[in-house]
Amino acid sequence: MKEVAKWSAGVVAAVLAGLLVYWLTLGLGGGDERDPVNTTIQPTITADPATMPSTDPATNSPTEPQRPLPFVERVRGVWKLQSWTEAGGPITLYIEASNGTLTVAEDGQVDWRMDIDERGENNQPQPAIKCGGQATLAGEIEGVPGGPRNSEINWTSDLHSVDHSSTGEDWIWRALCGWATIGTRAPYKVTLDGVETAPATMMEMANQYGTFRWSRA
């Protein structure tokens, strides 16, 4: 019986010692981190860049998204003529245009001027033409007849002859300025380069009689 008692006491002491070690281990934070009972998996949250507001690196403040500029804002300023190409057709003016400038004001008023002459000729003084127009909300440029904004400068008799049809229509004015004296209008459709959020650097103006190509002066 004494041997059994000694054996039981030893077992109890071993169990108590094991429990003591276990409790001390818990108290010192030495638990197994891989224990699924004591491990909490934190979800990873990834922000969508498309929903994140953009910021100005200099000020670290939010910036407004860029918006398309109105047509007048994209074309406002001074332009230099690169070329005028007459459209093909049963009637051709057979004239050349050069040394042109075009200005678009803040209110959309458009004025352009260029030297003109019959092809292959070099008359002095140099004939020229001035045209007045207006930019529209539809992205076109319409000629505005009459007044000091439109004028013939040193036209030769040959140019006057080419200009007039048998019905009194002014072909040169219709082609280069977008209108004729008998009331015919020929507005210019405008094509611009670049993105809609910035001023254009190249511009085409085209009606059924020809195409202007302009670049920023």
Task: Tell me what you see in this structure.
It is built from four helices and eleven strands. It has helices at 2-27, 71-75, 157-163, 171-177, and strands at residues 55-56, 61-62, 77-86, 95-104, 109-118, 128-135, 140-143, 151-153, 188-192, 202-207, 210-216. With 217 residues, it is of the alpha+beta class. It has two domains: 2-62, no CATH class; 71-216, Lipocalin (Beta Barrel), CATH 2.40.128. The strands form two sheets. An eight-stranded antiparallel β-barrel has the order 3-4-5-6-7-9-10-11. A two-stranded antiparallel sheet has the order 1-2. The N and C termini lie far apart (118 Å).
Task: Provide keyphrases for this structure.
217 residues, alpha+beta, Lipocalin, 2 domains, 8-stranded antiparallel β-barrel, 4 helices, 11 strands
Briefly note the structural class of the backbone: alpha+beta
Query: What is the CATH third-level topology name of the largest domain?
Result: Lipocalin
In the CATH scheme, the class of the largest domain would be Mainly Beta
Give the H and E element order: HEEHEEEEEEHHEEE
CATH arch. level architecture of the largest domain: Beta Barrel
Task: Tell me how many strands there are.
Answer: 11
Strand order of the largest sheet: 3-4-5-6-7-9-10-11
The share of residues in extended strands comes to 25-35%
Gyration radius, to the nearest Å?
A: 42 Å
Instruction: Quote the average pLDDT.
Output: 83
Overall structural domain count: 2
Low-confidence blocks of residues: 30-37
| SS element count, helices | 4
Strand count, sense and closure of the main sheet? 8 strands, antiparallel, barrel
Distance between the termini: 118 Å
Task: Characterize the overall form.
Answer: elongated
Percent helix: 10-25%
